[in-house]
């Protein structure tokens, strides 16, 4: 979850998304429909909320299998209003999450790149199909199963507590990502930590975004977090300081 900004796009549903910073590289690729048409990558605020809800339920239930047969319950987890439009978007996002493939690579100084994780987050997504077009379908999700590798490497015994409804109040992907990140970083530091915008740029930028544009958007996100969540973060000309 701390690194979700590296493999979940902020918007759009591209077929591939690549991010690299500080020796880490993330490559996300889409799944395809039976005719080879790309499904698209999960993106935006809803995908982030949904992933947090699914991982949280997995931790609480101590199981790779998560019952998602109640759309209303799922939308309550993600702090979304239950409307027909939101339900369709949620179903599409579930399919995208269930079919995305993520590779994480790490390169230490003086060594070749080593693959840390490669594969799908989910083993399976059980659905009740509602036939429509040949390559498109609506579905009612029933159960999601995290892949054993993802569950063991990322979920099991690696949980960090947070107040869910506070995180779910974030209104943009950037605010959501930076809030989660700050909650974790500020919980483990023992003295003020200064971070320059150049370093933060590589972690949180969107593709094609200039450093100047990023710095403007990032400062705005930090001000929102200061105001709405009362986080002790100071904004400077060259970077921020986490208290």
Question: How far apart are the first and last residues' alpha carbons, in Å?
Answer: 21 Å
Count of helical stretches: 9
> Care to count the β-strands?
10
From the alpha carbons, calculate the radius of gyration and give it in angstroms. 18 Å
Report the major sheet.
4 strands, antiparallel
**Proportion of residues in helical segments:** 40-55%
Q: Estimate the strand proportion.
A: 15-25%
Task: Kindly name the structural category.
Answer: alpha+beta
Strand order of the largest sheet: 1-2-4-5
The average pLDDT value, as a whole number, equals 85
Form type? globular
What is the element string, with H for helices and E for strands? HEEHEHHEEEEHHHEHHEE
Detail the poorly predicted runs.
Answer: none
Walk me through what this model shows.
The strands form 3 sheets. Strands 1-2-4-5 form a 4-stranded antiparallel β-sheet. The chain has a 3-stranded antiparallel β-sheet with strand order 3-7-6. The chain is an alpha+beta fold and 243 residues long. Helix 2 (44-61) packs across helix 4. It is built from 9 helices and 10 strands. The longest helix is centred in the C-terminal third of the chain and has 19 residues, at 211-229.
List keywords for this structure.
single chain, 243 residues, alpha+beta, 4-stranded antiparallel β-sheet, 3-stranded antiparallel β-sheet, 9 helices, globular
